[in-house]
């Protein structure tokens, strides 16, 4: 699996870049690096990147800005590196588009494990009803193989985890899923998320695919039970 993936590591601390690069290359991944957000965006726009390890605090363009810019067009998996350990900060990272996070100082071995887990979740085979699903006469279009979601013909940038949650819901229309069920089906039993994380994914998806996120027509809440997808 490793040789198929190219990983972009972005951090202004050269020691961290060197260690992470060495560990990932030892596992067989191809690794490219950037020392700031501007260089990271240039690399991402010109190379086929499968996953990004992204520091939060960087010169020129911050990690938050890089993540937000990438999310306008791509669902590429992003692991955020942050010195902030509080739950609210982790929620904020997920809100702007990160799929996972690690708090500095971190174990390079743990990062490798998380990279592998996120790549499995992002690129494992899925078998939906069709490769491209459309709803409400083309208002919402989902290309499952290419992981592209379009709203009224315009691509919207879902994170990998948001895309997984959406795929589970829309390929099981009308079925109610609890938070635990969504986590298990989308990410597997080893996922270390929590209830607020699932709610954040749902909130973000609604912001991107609903005309009015406060009055959703696609992803509705079944109070006391969970969420379901209404195709029309």
Describe this protein's structure.
There is one protein chain. The chain is globular and about 50 Å long. It folds into two domains: 122 residues, Rossmann fold (3-Layer(aba) Sandwich); 98 residues, Orthogonal Bundle (Arc Repressor Mutant, subunit A). The strands form three sheets. The chain has a five-stranded parallel sheet, sandwiched between helices. It is α/β, with parallel strands linked by helices and 232 residues long. It has eight helices and eleven strands. Helix 4 links the parallel strand 4 and strand 5.
N-to-C order of helices and strands: EHEHEHEHEHEEEEHHHEE
Distance between the termini: 38 Å
Number of domains: 2
What would you say the CATH architecture of the largest domain is?
A: 3-Layer(aba) Sandwich
Query: How large is the count of helical segments?
Result: 8
Shape: globular
**Strand ordering within the main sheet:** 2-1-3-4-5
Q: Would you identify the CATH H-level superfamily of the largest domain?
A: Response regulator
Largest β sheet strand count, sense and barrel closure: 5 strands, parallel
Top CATH class of the largest domain: Alpha Beta
Briefly note the CATH topology name of the largest domain.
Rossmann fold
In total, how many beta strands? 11
Percent of residues in β-strands: 15-25%
Supply Rg.
17 Å
Mean pLDDT reading: 84
Uncertain regions spanning at least 5 consecutive residues: 125-129
Secondary-structure class? alpha/beta
Helix content: 25-40%
Protein name: Stage 0 sporulation protein A homolog
Keywords: DNA-binding, Phosphoprotein, Transcription, Transcription regulation, Two-component regulatory system
GO molecular function: phosphorelay response regulator activity; transcription cis-regulatory region binding
Modified residues (4-aspartylphosphate): 55
């Amino acid at each position: 699996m490793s040789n198929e993936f190219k990983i972009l590591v972005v951090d202004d601390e050269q020691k961290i870049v060197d260690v992470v690069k060495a560990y990932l290359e030892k596992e067989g991944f191809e690794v490219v690096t950037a020392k700031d957000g501007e260089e990271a965006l240039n690399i991402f726009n010109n190379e086929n990147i499968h996953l990004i390890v992204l520091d939060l605090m960087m010169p020129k363009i911050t990690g938050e800005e890089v993540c937000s810019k990438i999310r306008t067009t791509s669902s590429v998996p992003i692991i955020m590196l942050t010195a902030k350990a509080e739950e609210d900060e982790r929620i904020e990272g997920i809100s702007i588009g990160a799929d996972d996070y690690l708090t500095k100082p971190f174990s390079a071995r743990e990062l490798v494990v998380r990279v592998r887990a996120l790549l499995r979740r992002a690129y494992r085979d899925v078998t939906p009803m069709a490769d491209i699903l459309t709803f409400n006469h083309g208002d919402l279009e989902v290309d499952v193989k290419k992981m592209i979601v379009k709203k009224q013909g315009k691509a919207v940038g879902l994170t990998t985890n948001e895309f997984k949650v959406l795929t589970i819901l829309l390929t099981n229309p009308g079925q109610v899923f609890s938070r635990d069920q969504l986590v298990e089906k989308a990410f597997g039993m080893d996922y270390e998320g929590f209830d607020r994380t699932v709610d954040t994914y749902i909130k973000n998806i609604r912001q991107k695919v609903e005309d009015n996120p406060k009055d959703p027509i696609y992803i509705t809440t079944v109070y006391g039970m969970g969420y379901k997808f209404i195709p029309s």
